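Q: Sequence in, structure out?
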Amino acid sequence: MTSSEQASATITSPVPLAALIADPHPSYAALREAGPAHRIIGSDGLPVWLVTRYADVRQGLADPRLALDKRHASPGNYRGLALPPALDANLLNMDPPDHTRIRRLVGQAFTPRRVEQLREPVQRIADELLDAIAPLGHAELIATYAGPLPITTICDLLGVPTDDRRDFRAWTDTLIAPDPGRPQDARAAVGAMLAFFTRLLARKRAEPGDDLLSALIAVRDQEDRLSEDELTSLAFLILFAGYENTVHLIGNAVLALLRHPEQLAALRADERLIGPAVEELARFDGPAPVAIRRFAREDLTFGQVTVPAGETVLLSLAAANRDPERFAEPELLDLRRADNGHLALGHGIHYCLGAPLARLETEIALTTLLRRFPALALAEPAEQLSHRPSLRARGLLRLPVRF
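A: Exactly. Output:
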């Protein structure tokens, strides 16, 4: 069988894109059972290959034959969000050796030891946010807690002035789930973010501080280990990813706990459970249904399906994390689950750079919320809550609660 014949063996997904976005977990289960890889039409109308089984996804995340550099994409294939060069030269578009060089530069800021030093400031942010809503008896947690906590933390780490943070959240929200009917909104957000980072870097050059952004500028200007585009793109990625993934992880985790009262009670009874709890909550309903798109450097085979060189591959983290071949009773939320090798934060050289910080923030966000509000409950039926209409991000639009 030729590559083209083999690829066409699973050419059409049995699940429409709309179902993958609106109801991902049953949809990914159907795809997993139907085959190891499916060609679907992505949100931009271009074809992509979707890989759904744990073993294939885990291997794919670390496979150098799957490139992030868009130069490996054949014409007419999905490439993702179009960004100007000053924002596009980031780790999500790079392979070694450039990826190795830049990740090494910034990785020192996100080691477990360095992140642990942020515990006290993150705890202070969580307490201040809950102090503000406590007298009300009710709140919309995405806007008042799950969103502000990570954006405040990452902005403090980078040294972003307080007055600039609200605009950045709005731009980020626009890019997470762009409206296909209003492409001008995404373009405007990209332009505004580029202008924002250009001004911010100029300000930090003139008045450096004790923050990560000032340190990166010093590397760029004194040691010449970053190009200007790489510097700007790195600042963009740290801020964007540091906000997006964590706000979704916290929001999804709170909802999952409120929908599983026996697990919520177990965590309330023993806060020492919070470490494995965060891992299980990430597996159960993580912030990213798919990993960043990749491009096949050569023909690749998943089971009996061959993906031709140059075509786009999406590795489904959501499908892998509920694969019954890897996890016993994968649809069950079990905060004491042993051997939880989930892929919610990636695997291999592209493993989430900010994973230690995301874990710390989520641990503090959950334990503080549950400690402060023992009567926490949903203020609306869970079935009425909506998630962002996005294939690549799994996050609640609203999370109204009472306490």
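Residues 1-11 have pLDDT under 50 and may be disordered.
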